[in-house]
Amino acid sequence: MPGPAIHVDNLSLQLGAHRVLASIQFSIAAGSLHCFIGPNGGGKTSTARCLLGQMPHTGTIRFEWFNGNKGNIGYVPQLIEMERTLPLTIDNFMTVISQDKPAFMSPKKEAKAAIDHALDRVGLTAKRSLMLGSLSGGERQRLLFAQALIPNPDLLVLDEPMTSLDEGGSRLFEQLIGELNREGTTVLWINHDLDQVARLADNITVIDKVVLAHGPTATTLTADMQRGVFHSQDNGWAV
Q1: Dihedrals φ, ψ of 156, to 5°?
Q2: What angle, 0 to 180 degrees and rounded to 10, lies between the N-to-C axes of helices 137-148 and 109-121?
Q3: Domain residue limits, the chain
Q4: Does the domain made of 5-82+135-238 have the CATH classification 3.30.565.10?
Q5: Which of 144, 145, 237, 135 minimizes the C-alpha distance to 193?
Q6: What is the pTM (predicted TM-score) of this model?
Q7: Using H for helix, E for strand and C for coil, what is the string for 158-189?
Q8: 80 burial class (0-12, 13-18, 19+ CB within 10 angstroms)?
Q9: For the chain, first and last CA: distance in Å?
Q10: DSSP, res 131
Q11: How far is Cα 93 from Cα 108, in angstroms, rounded to an integer?
């Protein structure tokens, strides 16, 4: 079944004296792959976190779920540091996020099958016994993606998930994101790679405190816009 459509109207965010977002408005089609691009500090991550209910805001955010039944939401943040002294393996970590049991207890059959499938999809099956503190940046990023797959997401929010990945990892993530989208998952992707955006995204929204542009990738991410984005990178643009 398709993931949700998302409608955002007059979304604003104020943190103290700092205006982060001002009257943001856009829609995301059900089952689409939609990218946010824009300058560093322009509010892309803040917009995504408002959609996830993680930040205070004004305005309206409306999800249209298939048949009105709320589905599962997966979230892959930018690379985060994990406490290296935690006595947890990848398996332990996945068990904790998959069920209400202590990490040292074996997961139920259904949970174990979900963990096995998620680790296989991100290429961590052979490393499941590694301690969290020993993981490389790319391995931690794969683990963050694996946890977003349990349960299988109807909406997947990605905040630059390819940070710290090598070329092989980037190819794997791109393939996995495409598979999920073809299965019907609505994908909202904060992305800094214009070539990747041009190849994969159905639609884009360019955000810099306000919506600078919004629409189908083929007609919105024009050559003029791309030249403008790259020309402005020295001034803090990242897409």
Answers
A1: -120, 120
A2: 130
A3: 5-82+135-238
A4: no
A5: 237
A6: 0.90
A7: EECCCCCCCHHHHHHHHHHHHHHHHCCCEEEE
A8: exposed
A9: 30
A10: B
A11: 15
